[in-house]
Amino acid sequence: MTVLQQGLERYLSAGQLDRLASVRVGIAGCGGLGSNCAMLLARSGIRRFTLADFDLVDASNLNRQFFFPSDVGQPKVEALGRRLLELDPELDLKLINGRLEAESLPQVYAGCDILVEALDKAEYKAIFCNLFMERDVFLVCASGLGGFGGAPMRSRKLGRNMVCVGDFSTEADEANPPLAPRVMQAAAMQADAVLARILG
Amino acid sequence: MSEISITVNGQPETCPHSLSLEDYLAGKGINPHKVVAELNGEILKPQSFKERILNAGDEVEIIHFVGGG
């Protein structure tokens, strides 16, 4: 048993830990949302992840993503995998370092019980959600996390199997750059929605 | 055609007449490629936005994604 698992036993029952360990969570994108959401879920007892991203860690990511200066230049999925394995060396990680094409998504995320949409562009978010929201998988997406001091974030349900979090209005752009507090707030709300689905 | 009342994201709205979801989105200046939508509890495929007509009493949920992740 890993140190993290020992520590988790103080807060969660054996039954709860078994439920968390039995689920595979797929995360699309390992940037501000995905890297933080994966970290939060690993800390919460999720043991099986499928992580995908095409990008390399850049200095401009360190303001909000779960990376460190020594990760710069490395593929995000590999850097995130290493950080997660520091937390718990026994995690079951499936890492996909490459661009996600709509046609290959069902295969990439086959075997996932829960999917977290953590993509950057609005069009890609819509494509991803429209693809999976009719399938038998719980889908958690996010919209509106730029800037600071914006509208309160909330969680909306669509159908039986989809939750979307965020302030639903503030695009991350030059006027409202992606900054750690609101990006991590959205990632934390996504992670909480995942836990609520599994343990609720 | 007479005006109709619908509910969009929990808020009552009035449209001048029955119209497709595609036309509704266009009227609001919303890019249909950035949207997921539910009509009366049923998830709508993007391909059906054009043919699904909004009628009086319909309840529509629209998530209009903005970028950032």
Description of the structure:
The complex is a heterodimer of chains A (200) and B (69). Chain A is of the alpha/beta class and 200 residues long. Helix content of chain A is 37%, strand content 18%. In chain A, strands 3-2-1-4-5-7-6 form a seven-stranded mixed beta sheet, sandwiched between helices. In chain A, α6 (122-132) links the parallel β4 and β5. In chain A, α3 crosses α7. A five-stranded mixed beta sheet of chain B has the order 2-1-7-4-5, with no helix packed on it. With 69 residues, chain B is mainly beta. Chain B contains one helix and seven strands. Chain B has a single domain, classed as Beta-grasp domain (Ubiquitin-like (UB roll), Roll). Chain A binds chain B through residues 29, 31-34, 117-123, 125-126, 129-130, 133-134, 141-146, 156, 158-159, 162, 164, 168-173, 178, 183, and chain B through 31, 33-36, 38, 41-43, 45-46, 61, 63-69.
CATH class descriptor of chain B: Alpha Beta
| Overall form of chain A | globular
Indicate the overall shape of chain B: globular
CATH architecture of chain B: Roll
What gap, in angstroms, lies between the N and C termini of chain B? 43 Å
Characterize the main sheet of chain B. 5 strands, mixed
Strand content of chain A: 15-25%
Q: What's the mean pLDDT score of chain A?
A: 97
Helix-strand pattern of chain B, N to C?
A: EEEHEEEE
Helix and strand succession of chain A? HHEHEHEHEHEEEH
Question: How many distinct domains of chain B?
Answer: 1
Radius of gyration of chain A: 16 Å
Quick one: how many beta strands of chain B?
A: 7
Strand order of the largest sheet of chain B: 2-1-7-4-5
Q: Report the mean per-residue pLDDT of chain B as an integer.
A: 93
Biggest interface, CB < 8 A: A-B, 37 and 19 residues
Largest sheet of chain A: 7 strands, mixed
Query: Which range best describes the helical content of chain B: under 10%, 10-25%, 25-40%, 40-55%, 55-70% or over 70%?
Result: 10-25%
Structural classification of chain A: alpha/beta
CATH superfamily of chain B: Beta-grasp domain
Q: Tell me the radius of gyration of chain B.
A: 12 Å
